[in-house]
Amino acid sequence: MDWKAITIGFVSTVIIGLIIQLVYVLVAALVGAYGFQSPWLSEYKEVLWLGGAALAFIIAMLIGGAITIAFARSTHLINPIVACTLAGLVSLMTSLDYSHLKLMSLVYLLMCGVFSAIGGRIMLSRRTHT
After folding, report:
1. Which candidate, 57, 59, 69, places its Cα nearest to that of 8?
2. Which regions span the lipid bilayer (predicted)?
3. Do residues 87 and 128 lie in contact, with contact meaning Cβ atoms separated by under 8 Å?
4. Is 122 exposed, middle or buried (0-12, 13-18, 19+ CB in 10 A)?
């Protein structure tokens, strides 16, 4: 494991995740404020919010995995998986009361690893083609 790459990937994933969440919250507030004017938007508002939150999470983990593998000296996908899972764990621990770790929390951490590995694999394929 490359600890420099894991540290850079962890920090960049947290920062990118926070920036993407900020944009998501601003867009969701805008949709919430003006959603009553559109019957379709007001009907599917919750679904759109959930889909937007999932998309923000996926983008943050993909970019975090790509950044981690870009700084890694090896091509092992364990580096982005560890970095982004740690970032997801920190994000999860700030939202929990530290007493209840539910099944969805474990699914969230598993998805952190999966999407960071996909981002790392995309970066590796781009690295070998250029």
Report:
1. 69
2. 7-36, 48-70, 77-94, 106-124
3. no
4. middle
Number of Cβ within a 10 Å radius of residue 18: 12
| C-alpha to C-alpha distance for 78 and 86, rounded to whole angstroms | 12
Instruction: Note whether 112 and 86 are within 8 A (CB).
Output: no
Average pLDDT over residues 47-62: 90
d(Cα 96, Cα 64) in Å, to the nearest integer?
A: 23
Q: Is 100 left (phi over 0), alpha (psi -120 to 50) or beta?
A: beta
The secondary structure of 94-114 as a DSSP string is HHS-SS---HHHHHHHHHHHH
Token pair for residue 102? Answer: 């539910």
Q: Are 100 and 45 in contact (CB under 8 A)?
A: no
pLDDT by residue (tens digit) across 93-123?
887 766 677 788 889 899 999 999 999 999 9
